[in-house]
């Protein structure tokens, strides 16, 4: 079970844990979520704290209360970002939930596109590792993502070229089996029309808009070691997070 931290507020953390399960498909539309009493027992909090957590999800329209029956999952309209997958890998040892399926359309070494070599701080045209993934849950494809690495890392970390999951995520794999220790990451988000490859992978109509999420992970010397590019369909445009505000 995820550990309760002091910041942000405990009810927001509990809401976040439940949201993760809904977004990933562990809790499906129509499933009942734990009651206030059960949440209070699971996370060792008072029932009003558990009640506030459920209210957060109700306001986000992820769950609905049914009088005399309980609280149930509505259709999810959000998707986990690369950042959230990294956090899940650290906490639970896997970037994916049991309800998610991951296929690898392409894994190999290619000439790096300009935006990729720029993100990795490599000379234009450098060779890079390309790991493509299509992530699906019972509702269908929810993410088409690509992880890019300097090609030289493939000699140190050969599993980067394997068409299967790398336990604990690729950054965790690099940290375990090489001297590379990613220490921070930066991200950015934009929207644009999807490419033919992207809309096909996500089963979208032609000329569909997609959400593009970029994340660059760097080591302690500010050297980029991984560039992640996540592509999400329109109905999963909603990304949410809670953070403290000090005035």
TrEMBL record:
GO terms for molecular function: DNA binding; DNA-binding transcription factor activity. Residues 8-76 form the HTH gntR-type domain. SUPFAM superfamilies: Chorismate lyase-like (SSF64288), Winged helix' DNA-binding domain (SSF46785). Coiled coil: none annotated. The keyword Thylakoid does not apply. It comes from the Bacteria. The lineage of its organism: Bacteria, Bacillati, Actinomycetota, Actinomycetes, Mycobacteriales. Keywords: DNA-binding, Transcription, Transcription regulation. Signal peptide: none annotated. CDD domains: WHTH_GntR. It holds the Pfam family GntR. InterPro entries: Bact_HTH_transcr_reg, Chorismate_lyase_/UTRA_dom_sf, Tscrpt_reg_HTH_GntR, UTRA, WH-like_DNA-bd_sf, WH_DNA-bd_sf. This is HTH gntR-type domain-containing protein. GO terms for biological process: negative regulation of DNA-templated transcription. The keyword Protein transport does not apply.
């Amino acid at each position: 079970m995820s550990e309760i931290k002091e910041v942000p507020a405990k009810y927001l953390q509990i809401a976040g844990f439940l949201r993760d399960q809904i977004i990933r498909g562990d809790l499906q539309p129509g499933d009942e979520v734990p009651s206030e009493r059960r949440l209070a027992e699971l996370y060792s909090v008072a029932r009003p704290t558990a009640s506030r957590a459920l209210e957060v999800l109700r306001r986000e329209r992820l769950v609905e209360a049914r009088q005399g029956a309980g609280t149930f999952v509505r259709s999810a309209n959000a998707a986990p970002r690369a950042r959230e997958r990294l956090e899940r890998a650290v906490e639970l040892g896997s970037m994916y939930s049991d309800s998610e399926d991951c296929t690898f359309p392409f894994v190999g070494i290619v000439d790096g596109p300009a935006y990729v070599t720029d993100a990795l701080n490599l000379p234009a045209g450098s060779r890079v590792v390309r790991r493509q993934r299509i992530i699906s849950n019972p509702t269908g494809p929810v993410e088409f993502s690509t992880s890019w690495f300097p090609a030289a890392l493939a000699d140190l970390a050969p599993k980067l070229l394997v068409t299967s999951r790398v336990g604990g995520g690729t950054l965790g794999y690099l940290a375990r089996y090489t001297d590379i220790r990613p220490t921070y990451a930066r991200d950015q988000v934009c929207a644009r029309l999807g490419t033919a490859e992207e809309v096909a992978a996500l089963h979208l109509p032609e000329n569909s808009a997609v959400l593009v999420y970029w994340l660059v992970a760097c080591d302690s010397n500010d050297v980029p070691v991984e560039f992640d590019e996540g592509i999400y369909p329109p109905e999963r445009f909603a990304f949410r997070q809670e953070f403290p505000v000090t005035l």
